């Protein structure tokens, strides 16, 4: 199902080139002050326009359909919609015969028996992360003191931010794309969030993070490095203020321990590249060459920190 | 909540040193042949006894409380229980004052207001993975043709299996512990499992995998490496038989694409080590030295491949 | 939460005098042909205009926001929205001080800490049954052969349809209102729907039916009369074609038995009456006289058979 | 699924003549004092032994498998099991060919493809209400001040309690059975429980009540009578202390209004009667005569008030 959460429940809807994309938030607390302006800051962080991101322009203006009265949430389901405008569906005509490598074109067609909306990736489009970001703003407001901050720490394998513009330019010139790694840190986390086993905080966060298109991995605290450490190195002794090394990323036994939650997310390079790719043509039943036009990010990871924050906020708003 | 799944629903219960641990499986298909012997093979793979694993011995004998009639599942909830026997609770007396680093002692006490069962980690104990393995056997049987195989590919940072005994011995001699990495591969996966966004296959698998105690990270296909690749390297062109490189680990847009699902899981080193650790004594309110006796794995990752298989089977049984 | 269903999941949103009301249907099968015209028939059955119903006029025109492509459902979440137009909020000004007897004004204010949208009952308005009817149309299409038919069998205690116009006129003249009873029958039900205990068919249907505003009771088969019968009278012997008397309304042990599902639903008289009512004024803290203007049904039960059908279809679409 | 609740989650398991019946309660608050004795009072109210109830004797002794430590709930899943003892399966041999009218024998066999446990009704047995009562005790303790009281108000259509012994004797002498009506009242209910539409209090309570075997109807407040009243009669004006007539049974718009919740439940007469019944023999494919031996209640409704209380407590513990 396209929804998440037990108490603070988020349901996404929409397609890239359909009428609209949007989100219904069921269980948002009443009395949260919320305006279009509140949403626009995070929406702006997701928007294209940075070097290395798509030139598709949308108004990205939120429309409140329900759940808001005199500038405050009412307690009833809150619905936020974004109209689709600047669509160029003709760019996507050829992909029925030649599904784009790395995209959901193929699986969507098989899963939904060729009834899926193929334009712009349809329901699988990254545009669905727009209402996700909107829901994240509401969740952040519901969380009050808890502070969530994500940032890009690596682009194309390079962690030196000063070199990124160069790398992006080069990839663009080659008609190629780059991936990246986002680190998210949550401060002021109360002790005791999460449940043992199936509803561990890592379970919930990873569940939500893998809902973001293009994620390939997630690790908490020392992460994959922990598998190469000794117990005496990795173990995190308590001090008077709580854990001292935070090797477990703020979580023990699935439960928050009061230290900051820390995790990293690996994003693949953008799948849509203008560089020609050899791939199968299901119509001619032969290998063929695909050149993807359209407007695409060189490195969509640049736009993802705010999305990682959003899903993290949604998880925590549900757990709190 | 301590349950997982929408259709094939698994609920864990029990404590390490309580009366029993067990699992209720709601939604298991009727007519599955199931005997104690069927369970014992996978249970044996989880059992201690390998070099580097704990010397605690339990009968680990499954008792069917419900849902089985004349050797077949009935369609009604299936309950499998394991009695606890060989417990030495006195080993755990001191941890109220000095919570063990890396364990849930501290968070469990705070979360449940000091009402939690602290003996042997209580409900947070790794012993709960025993009913999880039992549920995995049922799930595997429900999956029929789908084949799930997990194996340890790294111990203490070393991928050469021939050197593991030496590494384990050395760690044990030092009173220390090691971590490891498990790789899981699923063959014969039908195209179209999973849902876009929140119920993506990666979301569901990672959710279930992080329910296993001691997991620090998960990655699918090219994983974290993908973040350092170019689109033209990472992209996975279709051939006549489907994806050719499987860089996405069998999943596009959250949906299985027919190629094998491939993922890797990082396990931390065992937290309980006999080597003395400096940690906070909440009673004396001073730093103190903790020496953990008890019987513990040098590298519990050795016992986890069958558990990774189990949770994967549970996810797929729910999705199919 | 304002959603229902595990597989065919319906989420309602909107307020009477807000921007819009609508529904997101997650899990609707792909490939269902669906047009505005398809919806208008059932929407028309719910519309006011019959003798004894409100004179409020809305276009009631459905707008498909997502999940529909080239006239067919895509498999992705289907969102149907109805804009609100003909609102007269000033009619509702006084109810903050004097909550209308029989309405949710009072509880909504307390529950949501006076942040609720009070105009026209806000989220509690009967207008929310409009998207419910739309979801019902989709559910009926998903059910194919199963045939659901509800009709009013009693108005104001009278089961002789020929006398209803007279009763309604009289009640209207008195500024009063009437209740009614709806009977619903489902034909061509496959054997085996439902689960024992908590997800019995009666549990699911009654859950959904009590979501309709103004329902006071529900009974299946012989219903309350069964409590006054002997076992030998009530028992339903099998014949070669299945149950012979259908005293249990098509359900045994919570599971459909192949006979038609039959149940009756009691609707209260409309709460909004123009006749003056003595009730408490929370501002003056004295008893006071309330005269409700606005435009209201004399007997809203007249409009409910199609709503009962809708929720029944939603339940069955989820169970099938 | 055989579970109920979002926060306070109850999962039933077991069969009448299997190893055991039981319940897992996930989400029970920590720190509730709980002993076998606490359970025995309500268990005793459900037990046979009253005039008109079955002579089957079970120890009905609860065994705590998990979630209890030093006499208090721990916060982890609480599992309560009851072993089955006094079973006479041979009584049930014939029902494969001739399913008992009014029982689930037939639908269980079809639903689960003849893999169901048929002994004593298997998972559909009324014995499953024993763990339900146990869960109810825990829920009542979790509810603290809220007071739930159910009682039988009608047996065989007669509301004069003094005449019941006579009626029961007569029915027993005739090999027949009687039904009854239970009224449940909940005092000290906080204002604001429940959600509009799908999670209305009536929706939740009716959902849980129809999980009890043998229920034919439920009505709140004025119930079916409301359908025959005028608005001016049924409406419930507010006084300084809240609703004055409680015609809606303590619920407006699905939300509790502070007045007592009041509802009535209709139970059918016991289906198992010793009087011979003409019914279909699926083996001989002819009508045949069935005489049900075994030990059965003349009027099982006598044992149900405590079960109605239990499911009501479970609902409220989940909503609070």
Summarize the structure in words:
The structure is a homotetramer of 320-residue chains. In chain A, the strands form 6 sheets. A 5-stranded antiparallel β-sheet of chain A has the order 1-2-3-7-4, with helices on one face. The relative contact order of chain A is 0.19. The two termini of chain A are 23 Å apart. Chain A has helices spanning 36-46, 105-111, 129-143, 164-173, 201-209, 231-234, 305-319, and strands at residues 3-4, 9-14, 20-26, 63-66, 68-69, 72-73, 78-83, 147-155, 180-187, 215-220, 238-239, 242-243, 251-252, 255-256, 261-267, 277-281, 286-290. In chain A, strand 11 (238-239) and strand 12 form a beta hairpin. Chain A has 7 helices and 17 strands. Chain A is globular, with a radius of gyration of 21 Å. The first copy, chain A, is α+β, with helices and mostly antiparallel strands and 320 residues long. Chains in contact: A-B, A-C, A-D, B-C, B-D, C-D. At the A-B interface, strand 1, helix 2, helix 5, strand 10 and helix 6 of A face strand 1, helix 2, helix 5, strand 10 and helix 6 of B. Strand 10 of chain C pairs antiparallel with strand 10 of chain D, so a sheet runs across the interface.
């Amino acid at each position: 199902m396209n929804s998440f959460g037990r108490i603070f429940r988020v349901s996404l809807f929409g397609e890239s080139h359909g009428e609209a994309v949007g989100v219904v938030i069921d269980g948002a607390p009443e009395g949260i002050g919320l305006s279009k302006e509140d949403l626009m800051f995070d929406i702006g962080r997701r928007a294209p326009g940075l070097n290395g991101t798509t030139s598709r322009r949308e108004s990205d203006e939120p429309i409140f359909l329900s759940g808001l009265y005199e500038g405050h949430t009412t307690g009833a389901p809150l619905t936020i919609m974004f109209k689709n405008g600047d669509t160029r569906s003709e760019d996507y005509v050829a992909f029925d015969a030649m599904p784009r490598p790395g995209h959901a074109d193929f699986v969507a067609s098989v899963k939904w028996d060729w009834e899926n909306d193929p334009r712009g990736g349809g329901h699988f489009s990254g545009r669905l992360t727009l209402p996700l970001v909107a829901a994240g703003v509401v969740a952040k407001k519901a969380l009050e003191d808890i502070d969530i901050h994500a940032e890009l720490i690596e682009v194309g394998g390079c962690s030196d931010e000063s070199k990124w513009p160069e790398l992006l330019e080069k990839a663009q010139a080659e008609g190629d794309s780059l991936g990246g790694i986002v680190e998210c840190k949550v401060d002021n986390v109360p002790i005791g969030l999460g449940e043992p086993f199936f509803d561990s905080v890592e379970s919930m966060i990873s569940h939500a993070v893998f809902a973001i298109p293009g994620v390939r991995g997630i690790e908490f605290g020392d992460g994959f490095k922990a598998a190469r450490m000794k117990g005496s190195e990795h173990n995190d002794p308590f001090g008077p203020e709580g854990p001292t090394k935070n090797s477990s990323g703020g979580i023990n036994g699935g439960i928050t321990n009061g230290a900051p939650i820390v995790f990293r997310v690996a994003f693949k390079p953008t799948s849509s590249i203008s560089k020609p790719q050899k791939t199968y043509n299901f119509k001619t039943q032969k290998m063929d060459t695909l050149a993807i036009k359209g407007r695409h990010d060189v490195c969509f990871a640049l736009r993802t920190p705010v999305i990682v924050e959003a899903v993290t906020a949604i998880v925590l708003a549900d757990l709190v």
